[in-house]
Each structure stands twice: as C-alpha cells, then as structure tokens.
User: Fold this.
Amino acid sequence: MTPGASLRITVAGAGAIGTALAARLGHGGHRVSVLARGATLQNLRTHGARLDDASGSVASPVTADSQPSFGHQDIVFLCCKSQDLPALAEQVAPLVGTGTLIVPAVNGVPFWYFHQEGGRFQGRHVEAVDPGGRIGGWLPLDQVIGAVTFITAESAEPGHTVARNPHLMMLGEPGNTISPRLLGVCAALEQSGIEARPIERLRDKLWTKIIANVTSNPLSVTSGATLDQIYSRPDLLPTVRAVMLETGVSSFSVQ
Assistant:
C-alpha cells in the first residue's frame, strides 16, 4: 500500500461503528463500499455515510449494496457482533482477493486468536466464536490484521452515527510483528482522521478491552450509569474493581 493512495475499502456491517468508519474513510479520500440492508442501505444510497464527531459533520458518498458486488478490495473491515461473523464471512468472501487485508472490528476474543499465536494451542479455532472453524474456511487467516476498536459511537438513525470522543484503533499482526502491510492499514486510517496505533502484542490490548467490557457493560445496564460514572462513582468502584480482578485472573489463566 502506498501512503496517501486511494484504496478500495469495504465496510461490511453499517451499525454505529461501521458507519463511522465508512464516513471517515470516505472523507479521507478512499473508495468506500458498504455492505448493508434495509433502511440503512437506502439512507446510505441517498445521503452517504453520515458522521457527527469532534471534527464536525461529514457525509461521505459511498457505494452501498446488500450483495458483495464491489469486486476485490484492498481492505475489508468486518463490523458486526461476533455471533454474526460466520454468516458475514461467507457473504464477504467474493470481495477477498489474494492481496485483500481483512480487519475484524469486533469486540471479544477474535476468531483468529490462536493463528500464529506460538503457544500450545496454535492453529486451533475458538469454537464459541467460530463454530467448526468455518470463518477460517471463508477468510484466509494469513490475510487478517487484528484490531481493537476504541470508538464510542451511537446511531442517530440508520446510516448516521454520532461519535464525539476521539477515534482510536489499535492494530496488529497475529504473528506479533510490525509489518509493512500493518503500517499501510494504519496509514489509511490516519489519513482519514482515525488514530491508528500499530501494536506488536495486540492480544494484550484485546484482553484490556475485554476486561473493560465485562466491567462496564452489565453495570451500565443495571445502574444506568455512563462510562465516566462507572469508573468514578464511589458506590460503583468496589464492584468495578472486583469484576476487573476476577476477569483479569481468569484471562491470565487461559493464556
């Protein structure tokens, strides 16, 4: 990838995070296609991918379709819930050529976790995320760039996202190297106004995000508190610390 070049990029899944990525990448000069459906598809075709963030408001024209009709891409971002990945992997397979990089922007333990991991479980698949190892059958694992996404976003309406906080993504090779292709993906994101950090040991950052999600997700539902309140309210902090400690000890026991 040539720094500053206009890349062919597909965002598969146009929820809050997917729409934010599509809007930013389109604003950065890339040729963005979006795989979407229903009202989101119609709004993307009519208004483009819209984003209100700390830099202002952008509406980036995108090519949108419910089918993978865009041809081989330079980068495919997978933006969905982990339980939807097997079906999405099969759907986007026609977009993946020999030079296509696949970036799953998905929370939780990723389907590629043991690929090039180097430990005793190397080569296994995560059954809870990838039943039967089907995702690796549709998407070449050697073309995956891992990602941990720190973008706080909400959907104002289909195809329109509000994300006022700074946009940050950490990206890394499953084999723990800083490769030219990793730097190329980071450059494409940086060009589009998204801070992108190349990380040598991305799995460490994955567990940091998982521990944060295990802490904040249930507490936000049960208490109605915002993230800022969850990590500052005296009545919630003891629970936060207890959940973090329990999750951290459990995660280290399986690594």
Notes: The chain has two domains: 8-200, 205-254. The CA atoms of residues 6 and 87 lie 29 Å apart. The mean pLDDT is 93. The two ends are 33 Å apart (CA to CA).
